Task: inverse folding
């Protein structure tokens, strides 16, 4: 730092000490009022240095590296700018115009400044913005211009400052007024024809959107609009961001600690207990391993599906294509630019194709000319044909008329799937046909499907696997198109795809029928148990009466009918006792076991007297005979009042008023998980996705190719085996190791040489003989007890 002259320091009475700018800065922060004269002195020196520098610029004293061959002027100017930026918070009135002067200086002569001076002045301005002396809205345009200069240090400094300032502004809560002002500046710069300015604005917007700072619809719509910029480079940058958005990993560690991020619940998988028991206790060792592996695969697939559904429900952050205000207009404009761009490279055209297909599939748009445009590229020898076919698959959805996609579909089949085609091409063709039919099953005909399914007998593993996957799909979608021997055991034999334009309107809460079935089965079980207990009490009384009367003869059919009617009345009474106001009649209550028990009980009570049955005291089975009596008893007893309150709660819970509680929704989720587990077990882990899931899922071109591992040669296998043995020592037999042993005998060897008494030796021999007999006796028998999963 440059030292101040002694004559200038003497004005404050400090002639004996010479202070540089750093020491003076620290002293002025401690006592601002005592050093106001020094502040005015340094401020005047800054102004004079600034005027001198501008005069040199006006007289064109330039060199190759910039202005001012005299580096002392630039050094004094940078030192005093940093000094004044540090002490500005302590002298707000005296230095009120200093931030504006710095901004004007950078705006006027930033391109012609020396690199060191430019960085130093920029650091001073950043210091003022961080201390909230000047607003970021006044300096944003300056920092964006600084990023266009060919100075890597300055570019990194200005870019990081803009990003961190906007993040810090929205850290606690979203500051919408300031955000709109800053967005208007960046949007205006993005629309400029100057390529450097527009590119830096696009990079800033993309980075803020990726860091989840600006996730609003305005930013999400501004980024795709950059695809229509006159500059090809900016269009490529916007297209690449839209395509690679889902692959971008957020490098910011602070985002995980933000308040907006919520921990996703762990997926719950409910598997059948019977299947778990069979996988662990039934069959041979190899079959157990296969069953366990199957259960693991099903559990992983269900966890993945639940995780994807939870990510779908969390709509805090998603691709900018999801927030398009006018997706139809965007796709049509981009497609028209694709058709008119004859000079663009093939890679750029492929990027435009993928963005259009992604938009069409995501928003279920109708762009009929797009499918005919793809037809001229559908050939096996076409460059990047799998990427193009993936885009074609992505653009198919249930709202597109099948007639518009049928020419493209037939061309894919004719060009890829035939006997003279290579196995790789046949595999790609079958995979593309499967993915298109997954979205539009109406395209497939019976003859074509039966021809394609025959490829499952191919000797090429990739071709046969693709054909089997197509067969598995149509077993679930439309089994009627298959030959009877190829249908297998579908879950729904009469399953058919929806007609074009058909929509299933949900008229109730999804999954409420599962809750009703569960409640109905639980009520039947409870009522069956109660009626069984009541009937057993009655039968004990009736048996006693019959024995006293000496009745042991078999009655007529009329007597049996009377007994069954009375048992039905008893069931109704028991239902009333339990305060269960269910709509089902007595004939619907109970399962097969309870009905069999009633038949047995009626057969045991055949010898009873009808008059005695009519005189049975039925009041014994009622808990509360009269509701008014309950109220009177409740007025006199606190215990009765509590009991009455509990019964009324049960009545309110069991009544079907259409209002579900949190427990009901939790029960619906559990029942859905159990149903999905049963379906996954019956379908071997295959589950047909919905149209919304297919639209959100990106089609990867690598999945359309043949991913079958090639067989290794003997030399390659031996090389892999030797690689795994590098860490081991040389193999030696245990007997040879024992011979090299230098110590004494082991305990087991000593036991063999130990002389045992005759009684102990005979007892040991007899004990081993008995154990062998027991093993031989039970070797051919199995455990036939109760199953462990019930």
Result:
């Amino acid at each position: 730092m440059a030292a101040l002259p002694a004559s200038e320091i003497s004005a404050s009475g400090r002639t004996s000490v010479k202070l540089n700018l750093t020491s003076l800065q620290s002293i002025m922060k401690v006592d601002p009022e005592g050093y106001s004269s020094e502040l005015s002195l340094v401020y005047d020196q800054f102004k004079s240095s600034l005027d001198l520098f501008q005069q040199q610029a006006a007289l064109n004293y330039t060199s190759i590296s910039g202005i001012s061959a005299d580096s002392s002027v630039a050094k004094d100017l940078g030192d005093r700018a940093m000094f004044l930026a540090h002490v500005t918070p302590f002298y707000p009135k005296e230095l009120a115009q200093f931030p504006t002067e710095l901004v004007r200086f950078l705006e006027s002569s930033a391109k012609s400044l020396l690199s060191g001076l430019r960085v130093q002045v920029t650091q001073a301005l950043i210091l003022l913005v961080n201390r909230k002396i000047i607003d970021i809205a006044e300096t944003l345009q300056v920092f964006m211009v600084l990023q266009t200069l060919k100075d890597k240090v300055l570019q990194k400094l200005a870019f990081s400052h803009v990003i961190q300032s906007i993040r810090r502004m929205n850290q606690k809560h979203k500051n919408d007024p300031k955000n709109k002002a800053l967005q208007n500046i960046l949007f205006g710069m993005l629309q400029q024809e100057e390529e450097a300015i527009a590119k830096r604005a696009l990079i800033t917007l993309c980075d803020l959107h990726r860091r989840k700072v600006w996730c609003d619809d305005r930013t999400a719509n501004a980024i795709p609009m950059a695809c229509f910029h006159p500059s090809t480079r900016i269009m490529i940058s916007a297209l690449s961001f839209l395509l690679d958005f889902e692959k971008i990993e957020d490098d910011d560690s602070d985002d995980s600690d933000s308040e907006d991020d919520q921990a996703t619940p762990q997926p719950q998988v409910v598997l059948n207990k019977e299947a778990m028991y069979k996988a662990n206790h039934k069959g041979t060792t190899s079959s157990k391993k296969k069953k366990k592996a199957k259960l693991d695969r099903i559990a992983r697939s269900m966890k993945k599906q639940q995780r994807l559904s939870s990510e779908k429900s969390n709509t805090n952050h998603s691709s900018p294509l999801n927030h398009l205000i006018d997706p139809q207009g965007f796709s049509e404009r981009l497609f028209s630019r694709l058709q008119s761009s004859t000079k663009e490279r093939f890679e750029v055209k492929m990027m435009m194709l993928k963005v259009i297909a992604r938009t069409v599939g995501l928003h279920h748009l109708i762009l009929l000319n797009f499918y005919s445009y793809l037809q001229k590229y559908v050939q096996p020898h076409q460059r990047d044909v799998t990427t193009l076919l993936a885009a074609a698959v992505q653009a198919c959805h249930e709202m597109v008329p099948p007639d518009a996609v049928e020419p493209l579909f037939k061309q894919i089949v004719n060009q890829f799937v035939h006997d003279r085609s290579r196995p790789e091409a046949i595999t790609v063709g079958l995979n593309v046909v499967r993915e298109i039919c997954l979205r539009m099953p109406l395209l497939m005909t019976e003859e074509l499907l039966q021809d394609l399914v025959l490829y499952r007998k191919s000797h090429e593993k990739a071709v046969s696997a693709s054909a089997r996957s197509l067969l598995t799909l149509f077993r679930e979608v439309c089994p009627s198109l298959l030959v009877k021997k190829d249908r297998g055991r579908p879950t729904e034999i009469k399953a058919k795809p929806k007609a074009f334009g058909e929509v299933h309107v949900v008229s109730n809460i999804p999954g409420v029928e599962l809750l009703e079935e569960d409640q109905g089965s639980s009520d039947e079980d409870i009522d069956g148990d109660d009626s069984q207990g009541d009937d057993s009490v009655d039968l004990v009384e009736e048996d006693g009466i019959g024995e006293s009367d000496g009745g042991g003869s078999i009655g007529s059919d009329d007597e049996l009918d009377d007994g069954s009617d009375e048992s039905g009345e008893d069931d109704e009474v028991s239902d009333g006792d339990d305060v269960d106001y269910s709509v089902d009649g007595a004939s619907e209550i109970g399962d097969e076991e309870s009905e069999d028990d009633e038949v047995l009980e009626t057969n045991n009570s055949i010898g009873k007297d009808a008059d005695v049955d009519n005189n049975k005291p039925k009041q014994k089975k009622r808990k509360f005979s009269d509701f008014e009596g309950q109220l009177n008893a409740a007025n006199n007893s606190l215990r009765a009042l509590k009991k009455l309150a509990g019964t009324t709660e049960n009545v309110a819970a069991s009544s079907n008023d259409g209002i579900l509680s949190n427990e009901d929704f939790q029960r619906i989720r559990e029942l859905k998980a159990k149903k999905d587990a049963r379906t996954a077990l019956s379908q071997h882990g295959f589950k047909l996705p919905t149209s919304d899931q297919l639209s959100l899922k990106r089609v990867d071109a690598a999945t359309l190719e043949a991913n079958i591992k090639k067989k290794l040669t003997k030399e390659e296998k031996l090389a892999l085996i030797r690689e795994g043995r590098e860490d081991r020592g040389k193999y030696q037999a245990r007997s040879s190791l024992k011979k090299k042993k230098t110590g004494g005998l082991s305990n087991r060897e000593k036991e063999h040489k130990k002389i045992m008494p005759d009684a102990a030796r005979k007892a040991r021999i007899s004990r081993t003989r008995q154990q062998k007999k027991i093993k031989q006796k039970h070797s051919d028998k199995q455990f036939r007890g109760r199953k462990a999963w019930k």
